[in-house]
Amino acid sequence: MARYVALLRGINVGGNKKVPMAQLRELMQGLGYTDVATLLQSGNAVFSSKEKNPAKLIKQLEAALAETFGFEVAVVIRTRDELAAAIEANPLPGAEDAPSQFLVTFLSDVPDQKQLQKLDPAAYLPDEFRVVGREIYARFPQGIRDSKLATVLSGTRWGVTATARNWSTVTKLLELADKHTAPPRG
């Protein structure tokens, strides 16, 4: 059984696309997923599945969300190990010291390199970012709320689905994934 993290894009923001977490857990359990747990109200879920192909899980979950709630929700999935590797790969120092000033943007695939090359890092200083595989790491020393870079990174210009989580949420998701799958001791 594989352990996964599902990141739903754009739900429960400003009263739009409301997806209650209790209903999300029920929906996921109805799809046959086990050990389902959610974190916060922003569409973070961990679960186990026999399915080894994340693309199949994404299609199944997106279809069930549309059918149940009446609107489309894009989903990005990482395995538990991919999430742990993303945390380990963080190229920007200080995330643990100021987790609310750090975002990881999870992408459904490697971003469009031509679009990335159009992004001038100097135009967003003191904010900074690095792309590593299917994640974009960003630090916002003056806060995320008013940052132009935060808006750019979470947009659709990459040619892939993008959804961002702050560092605190990212690390708590890994803890939650590990908590629900601790191997029996004996």
TrEMBL record:
Superkingdom per UniProt: Bacteria
InterPro entries: DUF1697 (IPR012545)
Annotated protein name in UniProt: DUF1697 domain-containing protein
